[in-house]
What does this fold into?
Amino acid sequence: MIRKPIFAANWKMNKGASETEDFTKSLISKIQSENFPCEIVIAPPFTSLSKLAEILHNAASGQNAHAIQIAAQNCSQFDSGAYTGEISVMMLREFFVHYVILGHSERRAIFGETDAMINAKIKKAREANLKPIFCIGETLAEREAGNLESVLRTQVTDGLAGISEKDMLEIVIAYEPVWAIGTGVTATSQQAQDAHQFVRSLISELYGKDVAGKIRIQYGGSVKPNNAAELMACPDIDGALIGGAALEAQSFFDIVSTGSAASV
Ligand code: PEP
It folds into this structure.
């Protein structure tokens, strides 16, 4: 396996501190005796970061708690100052955050984030040594109009403008077809593989073959325990970004377990 698969739970606006504690303790107890060849990441809401960090820290002497990394679901493109409601990358660092999800389709569609804003956030995240999980993906209308590749090309090229090769190696891309997010409709493994292969070819154009071969590209969009293995068996799919099915520790664990076993 050249690329270590990465499975990330995106809780969106769900789970306060006590639910975070219950979920995390339950997940730790399930992975205790396992040695999955993958990274496991949890992205709680900002207000639950502290509880997640505390539980992981307290459990760190037990096996495998250290295998769980913390992600934020967003960050500001600014350092500090008069930006009401925003959270800076340095604030995230105080909670032992390693990853930050950027460019999620909900941020693009509901909160108006543009490729330029996402690009600025990726740069800011890298300045603080956070690893972006950079989300891209087409709507159903864009796919049906035959624009899949042009949409992905624009998102990738503009989102990564000015990012160095060194920083690129610290970025995870999440291909998430918008029509598959939270809908229960998953891309077929062929659709997903084709899109991932295309994204990898774009990275190769921009950064060369070597970098493209090292970059991890997660699939996201209605991943469940019963479809994870088929998707993860695709050669260009390196893990998953999971929303709904990551709200239950057992179901997230099952995806990690079957998905990492199937990863090639
Ligand atoms: C997501 O929000 O990134 C996602 C993939 O959600 P779901 O798994 O619920 O489709």
